[in-house]
Write a structure and sequence with these properties.
Blueprint: H1 2-7, H2 14-34, H3 38-50, H4 53-79, H5 81-91, H6 99-108, H7 110-114, H8 119-148, H9 160-185, H10 187-191, H11 199-231, H12 243-266, H13 272-318, H14 326-335
Helix pairs in contact: 3-13, 4-8, 4-13, 5-6, 8-9, 8-13, 9-11, 11-12, 12-13
Length: 340
């Protein structure tokens, strides 16, 4: 016993054990990202084409566009702006060619149109249409995730469990995505509207706020994609990580949002008719690309999970057989005592 105490290692300090635990946790979190390589990306493209990911993305984009249009109509009905726009366009035989003229046309008819109370029915119908379209988009995304994970049709959720799961996913994604859109597109104008008067100070603060808001937006989008990947498939493939595909999908969504924000910044300088037409086309392309990025992110998670499982199986086959444990040896000696 004294010899064992002499050669025993000193106890570790609490700080050292915490550092070792954090290092091990970071290694485990970064292990799926180390599996990214060009052959894996080529396999991702091949499987995306083979599993009709583009077709599912087109369906999701159509339903999301329908839900966005219905949501915009509900906002216009709620504020009484839709009658104003309709009467303003009817009162002018020639459409205005600049943004100030269009704003004057809308403002001229606001007071007369806002006194009419028939927009309540339209508001209710538009809200129901938006909820139905967004729920159907999430259901299509869940069906595509089941196809990506290889879930047979007999194991798909049906009936009330599927409906409640889809509604929960829709509400959760809405609570995560809507504040992200507000943070990404309108937070800079709200925070730095009339406050900053010095040019160099305002430029530095805007640049810093863009970095902070962009990081927060990417984090929220990553959380939304991971939420969809976790609760979408029924059941989810074991061993498939969540973060690699969610992070890359969030970066792709943020890149599309930056392109759309740059176009919106240049929009007042153009003709308002052609500007709105280009904005609609760019929004459709952004929605299609967003759906494609989200689905390909989950496909990437499945591929990384398969690669990690193959690495673990090869490692288990290459290890030598372990010697028998000391407990089993002593139990065997006690069970079979020597005979004299």
């Amino acid at each position: 016993m004294a010899r064992f105490r002499q050669f025993s290692s000193p106890p570790r300090s609490p700080g050292r054990s915490r550092r070792a635990w954090s290092t091990q946790w970071l290694r485990r979190m970064g292990r799926p990202f180390r599996a990214l390589n060009p052959p894996l990306l080529r396999e991702l493209l091949r499987l995306s084409l083979a599993q009709r990911v583009s077709g599912f993305a087109a369906q999701i984009a159509y339903l999301m566009s329908l839900g966005a249009i219905a949501s915009l109509l509900s906002v216009l009905m709620l504020g009484g702006l839709w009658p104003a726009l309709a009467m303003g366009l009817q009162s002018r035989l020639v459409l205005p060619t600049t943004w100030p003229e269009a704003a004057q046309v809308a403002e001229a008819a606001v007071w007369q149109a806002s006194r009419e109370g028939w927009q309540g029915l339209g508001f209710g119908l538009s809200v129901l249409l938006a909820l139905w379209a967004l729920t159907r988009a999430v259901a299509t995304a869940v069906r595509s995730l089941n196809c990506i994970h290889g879930v047979p049709p007999t194991q798909h959720r049906r009936g009330w469990p599927a409906l409640t799961r889809t509604l929960g996913l829709t509400l959760g994604l809405g609570l995560l995505v809507l504040p992200t859109l507000a943070l990404f597109f309108w937070s800079e104008g709200i925070v730095f509207g009339p406050a900053v008067t010095v040019d160099w100070l305002g430029g530095g603060l805007r640049w810093g706020w863009r970095l902070i808001s962009g990081g927060l937006a990417i984090a929220a989008l990553t959380l939304a994609c991971a939420w969809l990947y976790w609760l979408g498939p029924s059941p989810r493939r074991l061993g498939a990580p969540l973060l690699p595909g969610a992070v890359l999908a969030a970066i792709a969504l943020a890149s599309l949002g930056i392109i759309l924000r740059l176009y919106l910044a240049r929009l007042p300088e153009a003709n308002w008719v052609f500007g709105l037409l280009g904005l609609g086309l760019l929004a459709l392309v952004a929605v299609q690309g967003s759906a494609q990025a989200v689905l390909m992110g989950d496909q990437l998670n499945v591929l990384i999970g398969d690669r990690l499982a193959q690495q673990r199986s090869r490692l288990a086959q290459s290890l030598p057989p372990a010697p028998p444990s000391f407990d089993s040896f002593t139990i065997r000696r006690r069970a079979n005592p020597p005979r004299w």
